[in-house]
Amino acid sequence: MGVIHHAVYLTYFEVARVEYLRRRGTGYAAWTERGVHLAVAESHVRHKRPLRFDESVAIDVTLTELGRASMTFTYRMFRPTAPSETVAEGDTLLATVGNDGAIRLMPDDLARSLCGPERSAKLDGQL
């Protein structure tokens, strides 16, 4: 059909989420080195417009909820050439788990980093 497969949108959301962490000075590797992993517990995607192969896309990521052992991110995907037109939107609920897969409370400094400002220059966000 010439469009991106629907499952790929979640991969794009993940890339954007990892970049969100990196821009706040605590990349995903820093979390895993401390034995904290972010397990996706729920994910939702609302497809609004088709995205064609080889099109550039940008994603706005927002941390909308932060608990002691969970967080929710929302996403809005759009074409850089038409930023007011949403291609897809969605959200993911992530749980913090330890190396054993059991729920683990989020260390305070990692939680603070999620709410902090971007520490590095903003990239253009294109995938």
How would you describe this structure to a colleague?
By secondary structure, this protein is of the alpha+beta class. It has a single domain, classed as Hotdog Thioesterase (Thiol Ester Dehydrase, Chain A, Roll). 24% of the residues lie in helices and 36% in strands. It has 3 helices and 4 strands. The protein has helices at residues 8-23, 28-33, 108-115; strands spanning 37-47, 58-66, 70-79, 82-97. A 4-stranded antiparallel beta sheet has the order 1-4-3-2. Strand 2 (58-66) and strand 3 (70-79) form a beta hairpin. The radius of gyration is 15 Å and the shape is elongated. The protein starts with 7 loop residues before the first helix and ends in a 12-residue tail after the last helix.
In short:
By secondary structure, this protein is α+β, with helices and mostly antiparallel strands.
Question: Which regions have little confidence, pLDDT < 50, spanning 5+ residues?
Answer: 122-127
Note the overall shape: elongated
What proportion strand?
Answer: 35-45%
Largest sheet: 4 strands, antiparallel
Write down how many β-strands occur, each being a DSSP E stretch of 2 or more residues.
4
Determine the CATH topology: Thiol Ester Dehydrase, Chain A
Oligomeric state of shown chains: single chain
Instruction: Please report the number of helical segments.
Output: 3
Number of domains: 1
Radius of gyration: 15 Å
The top-level CATH class is: Alpha Beta
Task: Note the run of SSEs as H and E.
Answer: HHEEEEH
Structural class, judged by helices and strands? alpha+beta
